[in-house]
Write a structure and sequence with these properties.
Chain lengths: 162, 361
């Protein structure tokens, strides 16, 4: 239960995806902001007006998947690092995630991919690392994974300590 | 004796914004802070802030600090900044006794704004005085301000936003966070922060607390145990964790000592974090010309502290006879910002607290 352990159940997270998986043939932002908090940078950073919160900034964001282009600007602007972009291309999925650790992963490198509970579920290949003035210290990592993990992949493994 | 229109005590988000409003109105201001660098807690807040664009949402605390300090530069010599200065006395005739670099001096003010913030609460448990037991904010200062790694294996106690954020920042510093324990039934901070550390491998255990720290010269391990619904430890549920650092993040208490010294009315309001000044809706205390804003009035977020500081500075300037351009509309807009910051489910304590205090937020 997310209020006790921080893990959204599969049923909870599934609701944040488009109903039709076909929609994910193009990249779409998946917003996992499950509780009202006073925050709206996803809405104000979106160049396509695809995300709506409104005057009361406590309202949970609503996304219009038709308008979302998967550009991922909201991904590195979200203070809660709660947004990922996902796309399904044949038997592969592409995940765009926010990443705030050093060292950054390298293009073409292999990384472990973890789920919402922090368990390693698969390996991924880094396609791109965007790390510039605009992303402002929250790098945007594009990772290619097996399409089986389109819904449960959440971030790449961070090796800390030992 | 130095003489100023206004003295602002504390250069965190509330104090910096109060100083700005006063300066914009034309007042002379002395801004006092006991630290070397201005900005209060912003100096170590490397994470992106929540809120809306008006409170610099999505910017990092350390970058907001630069914005707030830069805003004061145009006012030149009407602003005097005294860093590394402690206010050690506050008197009814608006005289402040200060100590800077072992020198004692006094300042006379027409108006005083107390924006002293808060300090971290402690937690009673066996051996809580062993080296290696820290307040979470202290660990954040060590890491993010001074670049010092506090330890290698950490137990975090408390799941408020500070506990969750500092856990994440410990991971960023390459420190292993062995577990995060929370006495309550549910995580108390923002779930997005909790999810963020959980997926990076930190176990979050609710209804669990630290029983004791173990070690000779310093922390070598800890015992944690489950709590029942009465928040009592359940014998037989003890687990030992090998850690060298314990971070206590169990809330903050407003720093009201100066307000008590000058004789301003204070009231104990649990939801606001402890003793808080009795302020009116204009942030004036029971002592005319003495105002308070920010966390000293109740534990909240930096975003609301900034807004409160702006409102307080405008009110204090007007009370001294200065005019502030379009002040009515400005204050109304700022109050609306506060209203939205405080209207969500996480702001229940603040709403209850201010209601008990008789102040409409």
């Amino acid at each position: 239960m997310i209020e006790k352990n921080g893990v959204a159940t599969a049923a909870m997270s599934r609701k944040e995806f488009p109903e039709e998986e076909k929609m994910l043939e193009r990249p779409k932002a998946i917003i996992e902001c499950y509780k009202e908090i006073p925050c709206n940078p996803c809405e104000t950073s979106c160049p396509f007006d695809a995300i709506t919160i409104g005057a009361d900034i406590n309202v949970r964001p609503q996304i219009d998947f038709e308008a979302c282009t998967g550009c991922a600007i909201c991904v590195y602007n979200c203070p809660g690092l709660a947004i990922t972009v996902r796309q399904k291309i044949a038997d592969k999925a592409i995940l765009k995630i926010p990443y705030e650790f050093l060292p950054r992963p390298k293009k073409d490198g292999r990384v472990n991919v973890v789920n919402r509970a922090g368990e390693v579920i698969t390996e991924g290949k880094v396609l791109k690392v965007l790390d510039n003035m605009k992303t402002n210290k929250t790098a945007l990592i594009h990772v290619e994974i097996d399409a089986d993990h389109l819904y449960d992949a959440m971030t790449i493994e961070v090796l800390y300590g030992s | 004796m130095r003489s100023k229109d206004a003295v602002v005590i504390g250069a965190g988000p509330a104090g910096l914004r109060a100083a700005k409003s006063l300066l914009e109105a034309g007042a002379s201001v002395c801004l006092i802070d006991r630290n070397r660098k201005l900005g209060g807690q912003l100096i170590k807040q490397t994470h992106m802030f929540f809120g809306s664009e008006k409170q610099y949402a999505s910017k990092r605390g350390i970058d907001i600090l630069e914005i707030l300090v830069d805003e004061l530069r145009p006012f030149g010599d009407r602003l005097e900044v005294l860093n590394e200065t402690s206010v050690v006395g506050l008197y009814r005739d608006k005289v402040l006794a200060c100590v800077r670099h072992d020198r004692y001096f006094k300042i006379k003010a027409r108006t005083i704004i107390v924006a002293t913030g808060a300090s971290e609460k402690s937690l009673p448990f066996e051996n809580n005085d062993l080296p290696g037991v820290y307040a979470a904010g202290a660990v954040q200062t060590l890491m993010n301000e001074y670049g010092v790694k506090p330890g290698d294996r950490v137990l975090m106690v408390g799941s408020g936003n500070i506990g969750l954020i500092v856990s994440y920042q410990l991971l960023q510093a390459g420190v292993k966070v062995v577990a995060l324990v929370e006495a309550a039934r549910e995580i108390s901070g923002y779930l997005v922060h909790a999810s963020k550390i959980k997926r990076l491998g930190i176990d979050i255990m609710t209804q669990t607390s630290i029983k004791k720290a173990i070690g000779k010269e310093a922390v070598e391990s800890v015992e944690i145990w489950s709590l029942n619904d009465l928040w009592e430890g359940v014998p037989g549920t003890e687990k030992t964790l090998a850690v060298d650092t314990v971070c206590i993040s169990v809330g903050l208490a407003p720093l009201t000592e100066l307000l008590m010294q000058i004789g301003a009315d204070v009231k104990y309001v649990r939801e606001l974090g402890g003793n808080v000044p009795v302020i009116d809706y204009r942030y004036q205390t029971s002592v005319p010309g003495l105002y308070a804003c920010g966390d000293v009035c109740g534990i909240e977020e930096a975003s609301s502290a900034m807004v409160e500081g702006s409102i307080t500075g405008i009110n204090a300037a007007i009370d001294m006879g200065y005019t502030f351009p379009d002040s009515r509309r400005k204050i109304k807009d700022l109050r609306d910002e506060l209203k939205f910051l405080r209207s969500g489910p996480h702001a229940g304590k603040i709403r209850t607290g201010y209601a008990k205090l008789g102040v409409l937020s």
